[in-house]
Amino acid sequence: MPQLNLDCEGPLTLNDNAFELCEAFIPNGDKFFALISKYDDFLADVEKRSGYKAGDTLKLILPFLKAYDVTNDLMREFSKKTLKVLPEALPFLRFAKDTWPTFIISTSYRPYLEALSEVSGFPMENIFCTWVDLEQVKLLPEEKKLLQKLAQEIANLPMIEIPHEAQGLTDLPPESQKVILKLDEIFWKIIPETNAGYFLNEVNPIGGTEKAKAVKKSLSVTGLSLEEILYIGDSITDVQVFELVKEKGGAVSFNGNRYALRAAEFYALAPQAAFHSCLGIIFSEGGREALVQQASQKNFKICHKLPKSLKDWAKDFEFGLINQEDFEALVSKSESFRKNVRGEAVGALG
User: Fold this and answer.
1) Do 52 and 114 belong together in one domain?
2) Domain of 283, in residue numbers
3) 154-175 confidence digits (pLDDT tens)
4) What Pfam families does this protein's entry cite (predicted)?
5) Same domain, 300 and 182
6) Environment class of residue 140 by beta-carbon count within 10 Å: exposed (0-12), middle (13-18) or buried (19+)?
């Protein structure tokens, strides 16, 4: 019996909920979030700063959402209103939960996953996500004013440029080095002196190492092993899970970015979620080796076993092994496909 573990945003939904919250409630919030996301990429992937993990963007933005009067209820209602699922994600989730032990492991905030659970019928007890409570903090008037000022200062900073070969701060262009140092000051010196420092200290986003821990927790529930896990993800927050699962179970980058492709063993490009069912069936019949064999073939003959509602959609995809010989070409193709499916702004995020 295989076990399916999936990221949410990308493999199941089209949103980047945190980006959209910032865009909706913080002036210049799209630029603000994009810069902090790039800062997250640097801290997690280049500097590998102790105590920091991919996806901690979701705690970095909380002081500013609070400063612009976002509440738990507002976050919940916004998530319900803006939820956009990948085509055929809802039938896939219904099929998956009735066929295999299936878990969603997401960095996204819990209100967003509650919205998905409500429309799909997927049980919340099988979802790992980031717990947040904006009501835990009361900002002083001067703190609110300071955070709003800092948000606009961040939004107006130049975008950080990270060369592919960068291994530390000095490998970045001089202007980007200055931006990193400025953000270090804001997040690790200024904000901790305010009541909003609570978010940086207490919120623990389910990304990076926490996603890998969640996979292990899901195995403790089912009693299965890593060899029996098929994991589908798409971004930097999935890297540690891919490294955990790769060469044991199935590690699949779905419309993934550079970070996902660098860590996964297989890649998939598809505009819909019915394709996940194909992967599940293949994996259930032969594990990782069946995926390796299928990756060298052009057609998914196994798809005839899908229910008709999914079979009609399980097409227009590409699946294969990731290799270093054509890696840059694959990155270009996958990231372009990703942006076409999810939109330019969301698709460009790490």
Assistant:
1) no
2) 3-14+85-131+206-347
3) 999 999 999 989 999 999 999 9
4) Hydrolase_3 (PF08282)
5) no
6) exposed
Residue-averaged pLDDT of the chain: 94
Q: Which two tokens stand for residue 247?
A: 């060469």
* pLDDT at residue 247, as a whole number: 86
pLDDT of the residue at 317: 83
The pLDDT > 70 percentage for the chain reads 95
Number of compact structural domains in the chain: 2
Q: How far is CA 201 from the centre of its chain?
A: 21
How many whole angstroms separate alpha carbon 160 and alpha carbon 37?
10
pTM for the structure as a whole: 0.94
Q: Which amino acid is present at 104?
A: I
pLDDT digit string, tens, across residues 254-305: 999 999 999 999 999 999 998 899 899 999 989 999 999 988 876 665 565 6
CATH number of the domain encompassing residue 283: 3.40.50.1000
The CATH number of whichever domain residue 166 belongs to comes to 1.10.3870.10
Sheet containing strand 3-6, strands side by side: 127-130, 102-109, 3-6, 229-233, 250-254, 266-269, 318-321
Give me the pLDDT at residue 306, please. Answer: 67
What SS3 class is residue 102?
strand
23: amino acid identity, one letter: E
Last residue of a domain, one of 170, 202, 234: 202
- The Cα 66–Cα 194 span in angstroms is 12
189 and 309, same domain (yes or no): no
Domain boundary among 202, 235, 260: 202
Which residue, among 271, 349, 325, 240, has the nearest Cα to 19 in the 3D structure?
Answer: 349
Tokens standing for 108? Answer: 């996204």
Low-confidence ranges of the chain (pLDDT < 70): 298-306, 308-309, 311-315
